[in-house]
Write a structure and sequence with these properties.
With 125 residues, this protein is an alpha/beta fold. The protein has a single domain (5-122), classed as Rossmann fold, CATH 3.40.50. Helix content is 43%, strand content 20%. The chain has five helices and five strands. It has helices spanning 13-25, 38-45, 62-72, 89-98, 111-122, and strands at residues 5-9, 29-33, 50-54, 77-82, 103-106. Strands 2-1-3-4-5 form a five-stranded parallel beta sheet, with helices on both faces. Helix 3 (62-72) links the parallel strand 3 and strand 4. It starts with a strand and ends with a helix.
């Protein structure tokens, strides 16, 4: 079975790089996008098993992107990630769950927290 492919979507390059290092060191194939506009283009041309997406991004937020994934790529598992904003982060994450996220990851996250989220969605396959 080929390694699981994960798309990281976050407008902060440091978050994309950190998640990429954590996941690649665990043997995953990682692709990254800086927003919910670039990400669907990648998904249209690259096989993706899991998406880790931030919720608060300029241009197009994570909730819109999650809705699109659920419609176009129903088999892809989604980890919604947020550090909060105008409302508490757990509120954003609850909303994401209602829109189809399979697992939630709070920022700041730990390596163990990231791996736990990935293991959780992998069991759903």
């Amino acid at each position: 079975m080929p390694p699981c492919s994960i798309l990281i979507v976050d407008d902060e390059s440091g978050i994309r790089e950190l998640l990429g290092m954590i996941l690649e060191s665990a043997g995953f194939t990682v692709v990254a996008a800086e927003d919910g506009i670039e990400a669907p283009k990648i998904m249209a041309s690259t096989h993706i098993d899991i998406v880790i997406t931030d919720l608060l991004m300029p241009e197009r937020d994570g909730i819109e992107f999650i809705t699109e994934i659920r419609q176009k790529f129903p088999d892809v598992k989604i980890v919604a990630m947020s550090g909060g904003g105008h409302i508490a982060r757990d509120s954003y994450l609850r909303i994401a769950k209602n829109f189809g996220a399979h697992c939630l990851l709070e920022k700041p996250f730990s390596q163990a927290g990231v791996m736990e989220a990935i293991e959780t969605v992998q069991k759903m396959r």
